[in-house]
Automatic annotation (TrEMBL):
Residues 1-24 are annotated as: Disordered. Residues 16-57 form the DC-UbP/UBTD2 N-terminal domain. This is ER lumen protein retaining receptor family protein. It comes from the Eukaryota. Coiled coil: none annotated. The keyword GTP-binding does not apply. Keywords: Receptor. The keyword Acyltransferase does not apply.
Amino acid sequence: MGCSGSKRTRGDDNVKKIRKPKPWKHSELITRTQLMQMRDEFGDTAPHYGGRTEIDCSMQCLD
């Protein structure tokens, strides 16, 4: 299977199904202020671990 016009073949029964990942949840209840602080800390440290600054900046613009 691949194209919209393709048909099933005998080997397609072993295909793994993709599931939507579960949303991230913190183990304890946190306030919006704490969440914003965690995001800021992540944005500050991400470039040191290979994260890209421009992606972090674009994510901050979405808030």
